Amino acid sequence: MSSSNMKIITVVGSGLIGRSWSMVFISGGYSVKIYDNQPGQSANAIKEIRKQLEELEGAHMLRGELTATQQLALLSSYDDMAQALEGAFFVQECVFEQLEVKQSVFQDLERLVGTDVILSSSTSCLVPSDVFSKVQNRSRCLVSHPVNPPYYVKLVELVPHPETAASIMDITHALMTKVGQAPVRLRKEIDGFALNRVQAAIIAESWRLVQDGIISVKDIDLVMSEGLGMRYAFIGPMETIHLNAPEGIEDYMKRYGVGITRVLNSFGPVPDFCGEGSKSIVNEMCELIPNDRQNLSARTERRDQLLMALAKLKKDH
């Protein structure tokens, strides 16, 4: 696949993730064709993207080298899938998280594109072997799992189907790097991928500690936001332990490995997140942040503003 042909990306689905992916790709100078099977939705998505880009430009937080106007000129909307796919070298699927729907979408995509077009799914919890099970040529298929919201959180997990060609992983990794994301490669598929497995472990132990009366909802969040998260915003768990002993990671495990094993063996079973025992946690959380749309939207906006500021800080350092 020559670089001269790698200019157009089609985004299938114009919801939150589809809009975010579109913004990421145009920030890197790619032409993006947004398709949605609901008439008018892709056009509405561009209106929303315009508003966001203008706000970002006003706050000096716009990604890429192009102005908001220049980036918007790279966007187009389609209600017809075949037209949206013309000329694309890469397709990013962003429909809702239902296996049968995604399988159907990829059957349609395979029917309409050439054999060298890369087919990528934004799924967060479905493994590639299931998502692409009805595709005939699976060597050009992979999952590119973003973190919500992708425009502000740069990580992308690249997860191969067992038949995915190495060259497809390489091209996608290069694409994600070019548009300013931080791609990581999984060497094989696994339920939950890497990010959600680590996140699930944190959620489970945090839930247990609150449920067992050890700590409050507010304070367990502070353990992460004012403790572990301060380091993890810049270095991961492996580098953290490597730096936390005079002679590095091997020294760390000699000093603390027995204690870590003891603590891990004390963990209880997976909590019942929806049972009677969960009600007190839900109530405590909703006292801190009421679960009505207005309060949740305000906190989400605060989160995104802080993520933007953190992204800028990391870029400048």
From TrEMBL:
<dbReference type="InterPro" id="IPR036291">
    <property type="entry name" value="NAD(P)-bd_dom_sf"/>
</dbReference>
<dbReference type="Pfam" id="PF02737">
    <property type="entry name" value="3HCDH_N"/>
</dbReference>
<dbReference type="GO" id="GO:0050104">
    <property type="term" value="F:L-gulonate 3-dehydrogenase activity"/>
</dbReference>
<dbReference type="InterPro" id="IPR006180">
    <property type="entry name" value="3-OHacyl-CoA_DH_CS"/>
</dbReference>
<comment type="similarity">
    <text>Belongs to the 3-hydroxyacyl-CoA dehydrogenase family.</text>
</comment>
<dbReference type="InterPro" id="IPR008927">
    <property type="entry name" value="6-PGluconate_DH-like_C_sf"/>
</dbReference>
<dbReference type="InterPro" id="IPR013328">
    <property type="entry name" value="6PGD_dom2"/>
</dbReference>
<dbReference type="GO" id="GO:0070403">
    <property type="term" value="F:NAD+ binding"/>
</dbReference>
<dbReference type="Pfam" id="PF00725">
    <property type="entry name" value="3HCDH"/>
</dbReference>
<feature type="domain" description="3-hydroxyacyl-CoA dehydrogenase C-terminal">
    <location>
        <begin position="192"/>
        <end position="257"/>
    </location>
</feature>
<dbReference type="GO" id="GO:0006631">
    <property type="term" value="P:fatty acid metabolic process"/>
</dbReference>
<dbReference type="InterPro" id="IPR006176">
    <property type="entry name" value="3-OHacyl-CoA_DH_NAD-bd"/>
</dbReference>
<keyword id="KW-0560">Oxidoreductase</keyword>
<feature type="domain" description="3-hydroxyacyl-CoA dehydrogenase NAD binding">
    <location>
        <begin position="9"/>
        <end position="188"/>
    </location>
</feature>
<protein>
    <submittedName>
        <fullName>Crystallin, lambda 1</fullName>
    </submittedName>
</protein>
<dbReference type="InterPro" id="IPR006108">
    <property type="entry name" value="3HC_DH_C"/>
</dbReference>
